[in-house]
Amino acid sequence: MSRPGYELPVLLLAGFRESVDEAHRILAERGYPEARPRDGFAMQAIGAGSTAGEIATALGVTKQAAAKTIARLVDLDYAAVEPDPDDGRRRLVTPTEHGRAMLRASAEAFQAVRDAWAVRIGPDRLDTMLDDLNTLAARSTRLDTLSALADDRA
């Protein structure tokens, strides 16, 4: 059976959207109703500490867009901005304890989604699908995927 080529990216995006929406529904139930997908991507980009420029590069956005995201994370107490101890001219964005707790809750929510999918299609089929996706797309795992989709030059 031959299926149209467009079906692959459409279904991959639909699966991404379904898993993210469900994970954020779970996050809201667990006390993080304000969390948005971009917050999680930005927190991953921050890591243990990053500059606004590094975050912008990782997310594939302008420094101004990164600054807006950082301001949101600071307002939510997910991140703090402090002078870089190694270079006083730089400012580092670091996760707060609340931000790390949100990331832990997010990881648990995504695990719950994965577990639910395993129930729906069976754990062996899910593992096979994940192995196959890893073979096909592992080198493309990047945090700037969402901004690339919004960029009409991509």
Automatic annotation (TrEMBL):
<dbReference type="GO" id="GO:0003700">
    <property type="term" value="F:DNA-binding transcription factor activity"/>
</dbReference>
<dbReference type="GO" id="GO:0006950">
    <property type="term" value="P:response to stress"/>
</dbReference>
<dbReference type="InterPro" id="IPR039422">
    <property type="entry name" value="MarR/SlyA-like"/>
</dbReference>
<protein>
    <submittedName>
        <fullName>MarR family transcriptional regulator</fullName>
    </submittedName>
</protein>
<dbReference type="InterPro" id="IPR036388">
    <property type="entry name" value="WH-like_DNA-bd_sf"/>
</dbReference>
<dbReference type="Pfam" id="PF12802">
    <property type="entry name" value="MarR_2"/>
</dbReference>
<feature type="domain" description="HTH marR-type">
    <location>
        <begin position="25"/>
        <end position="126"/>
    </location>
</feature>
<dbReference type="InterPro" id="IPR036390">
    <property type="entry name" value="WH_DNA-bd_sf"/>
</dbReference>
<dbReference type="InterPro" id="IPR000835">
    <property type="entry name" value="HTH_MarR-typ"/>
</dbReference>
